[in-house]
Amino acid sequence: MNQNKRNYKATFILDNRGKEDSVEQIIDGVKTEIVAVQGEVTAVEQLGRRDFIRVTDDKFPAGVYVNISFSAPAAAPAQLHERLRLNNSVYRALVENA
After folding, report:
1. N or C: fewer beta carbons within 10 Å in the chain?
2. Of 3.40.50.300, 3.30.70.60, 1.10.3210.10, 3.40.720.10, which CATH number belongs to 5-97?
3. CA dihedral sign of residues 50, 55, 59, 65
4. Is pLDDT of 2 > 70?
């Protein structure tokens, strides 16, 4: 592994309401965004659909959860959040150091 890269674990909540894209296609899009910020995806774990504990939108009480492990430069999490902010298929994203 390159010394300039760090390991990250990201949890994404996906929103596929009213979209023709399948969950796998949305995950592929997220992986493409990770590669765009010079990241390298190492593992993908689809956790399935789960209900939210606190529902902020009555029309969206549950989402599809996905964990993605990747390695990337230190600036990548901020860049990834900025890129995904424009993607309405990703409801929430949490990136942590692994």
Report:
1. N
2. 3.30.70.60
3. negative
4. no
